[in-house]
Specification:
Layout (H helix, E strand, L loop, with lengths): L1 H10 L4 E6 L5 H13 L4 E6 L8 H8 L15 H6 L2 E5 L12 E5 L11 H24 L5
Parallel strand pairs: 1-2, 1-3, 3-4
Length: 150
């Protein structure tokens, strides 16, 4: 990835990332919203689902709103070859979504925290999921942009 991110920076093209989960209503939307806020336009950010649902998860939306992130204009979208071909990194969140890696694109699998396995539900669960994803997004941002301490 470092080579890809470095090459991207040298060409003057912004790095691009696609976040994927099964329904594109929760985890991938969390990751995309967090990356958009952190990158402030320095990274092109996409999200999609392998089996997109009809709506965003209201708790995911609320957990982002708590951080001042508005995803009200977002909606679940399917994964497309066009977007995969346009990005430097594809991040698959959770274990439900399945996506075949591409030779020229870096793929990462983030097996995110699942507090419900410990009996934690509702908004408390969503905040823990959000914070786990936020830490990973910060690390990815630092790698994509060559910055540290993000």
């Amino acid at each position: 990835m470092t080579d890809s991110a470095t090459a991207t920076s040298e060409t003057g093209k912004k790095p691009a990332v696609l976040f994927v989960c099964s329904k594109n209503g929760g985890k991938s939307q969390l990751a995309a919203g967090l990356m958009r806020q952190l990158a402030a336009g320095s990274v092109d950010v996409y999200s999609a689902g392998t089996r997109p649902g009809k709506d965003l998860n209201p708790l995911a939306v609320e957990s982002l709103t708590e951080l001042g992130i508005d995803v009200g204009g977002e909606h679940p979208k399917p994964v497309s070859d066009e977007v995969i071909d346009a990005v430097d990194v594809v991040v698959v969140l959770g274990t439900e979504a399945r996506l075949d890696p591409r030779e020229d694109t870096r793929f990462e699998l983030w097996e995110t925290d699942e507090p419900s396995e410990r009996g934690i539900e509702g908004m408390e669960r969503m905040r823990l999921v959000r914070d786990d994803i936020k830490n990973r997004v910060q690390q990815l941002y630092a790698t994509l942009t060559g910055t540290h301490g993000a």
